[in-house]
Amino acid sequence: MFKEIWQQRLKLVEERLPIELTSNPSLDKTLGEAMSYSLMAGGKRMRPILLMAATDAVGGRGEDFLTVACAIEMIHTYSLIHDDLPAMDNDDYRRGKLTNHKVYGDGMAVLAGDALLTLAFETVLRQQGASDAVKLAVVREFSVAAGQSGMVGGQAMDLEAEGRRIPLEELRRLHMGKTGALFRAAIRSGALLAGADSKQLAALTEYADKFGLAFQITDDILDVVGDAAVIGKPVGSDERNEKSTYVTLTSLDEARNLARQTVDEALAALALFGNEAEFLREIVRRLMAREK
Amino acid sequence: MFKEIWQQRLKLVEERLPIELTSNPSLDKTLGEAMSYSLMAGGKRMRPILLMAATDAVGGRGEDFLTVACAIEMIHTYSLIHDDLPAMDNDDYRRGKLTNHKVYGDGMAVLAGDALLTLAFETVLRQQGASDAVKLAVVREFSVAAGQSGMVGGQAMDLEAEGRRIPLEELRRLHMGKTGALFRAAIRSGALLAGADSKQLAALTEYADKFGLAFQITDDILDVVGDAAVIGKPVGSDERNEKSTYVTLTSLDEARNLARQTVDEALAALALFGNEAEFLREIVRRLMAREK
After folding, report:
1. Given this model, what pLDDT does residue B117 score?
2. What is the CATH classification number for the domain harbouring B257?
3. How many beta carbons lie within 10 A of that of residue A222, not counting itself?
4. Are A156 and B31 within 8 A, CB to CB?
5. Which residues are within 8 A (CB) of B29 and not within 5 positions of it... i.e. 6 or more apart?
6. Is the pLDDT confidence value at B239 over 90?
7. pLDDT tens per residue, range B142-167
8. Within a domain: residue A291?
9. Could you tell me which residues come within 8 angstroms of residue B162 by beta carbon, excluding any fewer than 6 positions away?
10. Which in B57, B132, B160, B176 has the greatest CB count within 10 A?
11. A149 interaction partners in chain B (CB closer than 8 Å)
12. What is the number of CB-based contacts under 8 A between chain A and chain B?
């Protein structure tokens, strides 16, 4: 059931993304191709899926807000393109494909990221069936999550932490920004679009933050014990790169305990919801095994 | 009078920018400094000034929309930081100061630009005295102007035109995107904030497009005949860099004629406005002499 819903919604997202991408013509053909190359490169589409699941949880229909779901995937994709740049993480491959700058050059990759970030905001405004007030609230969620107190801030911390051992508290703040903020925006936006009341929104925000933390800890665990084919990078790369992670800063056992505890807290945050939140429960449970 | 109004509003913008910049704390100290370094590096603040002048023209008070005026300057600044990168124009100096990446490194400069672009959208939402519908309209103006059919698209065309002679029509489209789109967004946003009707908005849009064209042609002329100290770059640099410009693609005389004609068209577009549009008239007249 869980996998079926995921696959079905993933298909909806895959079909809608190219439509939203070309809603405004690009002045430059190569730019349009570079944007599409990374946006359509596959992936689990976890943020759109989370957004729709949050809509379901408060009694809405996730499929009604595909436009905003696509917008958040644009923000995620832009951040991957910029993070992969030589001046940042300098990665040549992502999901088994050459990174954007390896195909289109560094300058065009910067621009493709810029354009996807910008397009995300324009896309939110095209969402049907949402009031002006809700659209503004979603723009606010996206801009706060993507900006200096969120993703860009976390990436800047990461850039400065390179090759340096950082305290666990700093690592937590780094990931809250770099990856946690957009999970939070996805889940809160899905809830806002469905007209969540303040209690529901607070509960889902708590869930989102625990989800983000559990995601990161299990990611760090997988880097040590995972299957290279599943995690998409060589096992043990964090330790070789002297990266601070939940495993290197504590131990594998402690990280596993923290992950389990965090998953339990995420589930507890959903106590006020019924069956409509079952997908959100299952996705965080499966983080431990990281299979969908 | 013209210079006094400009100076007075420039001062308001300079005072407000650091407040808007720090409305949300940055997760990373260096990132915050890098954003501030470029945002507070001076300049004429032409886009905020144009925005406020458009508000005046339709009977509003430009000073009432300082928040949005600051937001558009953030978008302008982000574009300068990214354009200066080694992967793009590779400039070491701007306005007599080291460019962002020369001070903070390429990675941090990419992030400072990303964060300023993102912050611009968040800032629009903080504007007091504007309805939700108008704020959404301004977000739309900004995102369309900044994206693949505007600034980023024009910059991508520029990247691909390097060292290649391009037809005049292509040059026009390139500049409509790279610089024209944000002038248009500034002027239209100022008008929308003041509640312009559709006739006023159409007239100001026409004015904005003529203004953008006149700005670019006179910029190209100044590169040939200007004073290096005034234009902030060596005279004749476009020709040495084999850049296609209105002067290199036609002649100095033809470019001057086209500039004069375009200024006249910009003035004609303002025919339905009275004295309230005098600042807009004066700013386009002065483009020919490029002194404020």
Report:
1. 98
2. 1.10.600.10
3. 19
4. yes
5. none
6. no
7. 999 999 999 999 999 999 998 888 99
8. no
9. none
10. B57
11. 24-27
12. 179
What angle in degrees, to the nearest 10, is found between the helix axes of B181-193 and B198-225?
A: 150
| Option in B24, B159, B173 nearest A144 (CB) | B24
Rounded Cα–Cα distance for residues B212 and B207 (Å):
9
Contact A26, B153 (CB under 8 A): yes
Structure tokens at A47: 């943020």
Query: Which 3 state secondary structure label does DSSP give A111?
Result: helix
The stretch A170-175 carries a mean pLDDT of 96
Q: What backbone torsions phi and psi does residue A202 show, to the nearest 5 degrees? A: -65, -40
Q: How far is the C-alpha of A128 from the C-alpha of A66, rounded, in Å?
A: 9
Which among A106, A139, A152 has the least Cβ separation from residue B111?
Answer: A152
Amino acid at B150: G
Q: How many domains does chain A have?
A: 1
- Give the up-direction half-sphere exposure of residue A204: CA atoms within 13 A in the CB hemisphere: 33
- CA distance linking residue A139 with residue A154, whole number of Å: 20
User: How many alpha carbons fall within 13 Å on the CB side of residue B275?
Assistant: 0
**Residue B124 near residue B142, CB atoms below 8 Å:** yes
Euclidean distance between CA atoms A34 and A288, whole angstroms: 34
For residue B24, give the chain A residue with the closest CA: A149
Question: Does B112 reside within a domain?
Answer: yes
Cβ-Cβ contacts under 8 Å for A217 (sequence gap 6 or more): A246, A255, A258, A259, A262
Q: Is B191 exposed, middle or buried (0-12, 13-18, 19+ CB in 10 A)?
A: buried
Provide, as residue numbers in chain A, all residues whose Cβ is less than 8 Å from the Cβ of B156: 26-28, 30-31, 108, 111
For B47, how many CA atoms within 13 A lie in the half-sphere containing its CB? 23
Question: What is the Cα Rg of chain B in Å?
Answer: 18
Q: Which domain holds residue B141?
A: 2-285
B290 in a structural domain: no
ipTM of the complex: 0.96
A150: nearest CA partner in chain B: B27
Name the amino acid, one letter, at A216.
Q
Kind plus residue range of the DSSP H or E element containing B74: helix B66-84
Q: Give the separation between CA B267 and CA B141, rounded to whole angstroms.
A: 23
Distance from CA of B240 to the nearest CA of A (A): 22
pLDDT for B234 equals: 66
CA R_g for chain A: 18
Q: Chain A: nearest CA to B147, how far in angstroms?
A: 5
Return the residue in A37, A67, A114 with the most chain B beta carbons within 10 A, the one to mutate for interface testing: A114
CB A215 within 8 A of CB A183: yes
Q: Is the pLDDT of residue B289 over 80?
A: no
pLDDT digits (tens, 9 = 90+) for B90-104: 999 998 999 999 999
Nearest CA-CA partner of A147 in B83, B17, B142, B116: B116
pLDDT grade for B231, boundaries at 50, 70 and 90: low
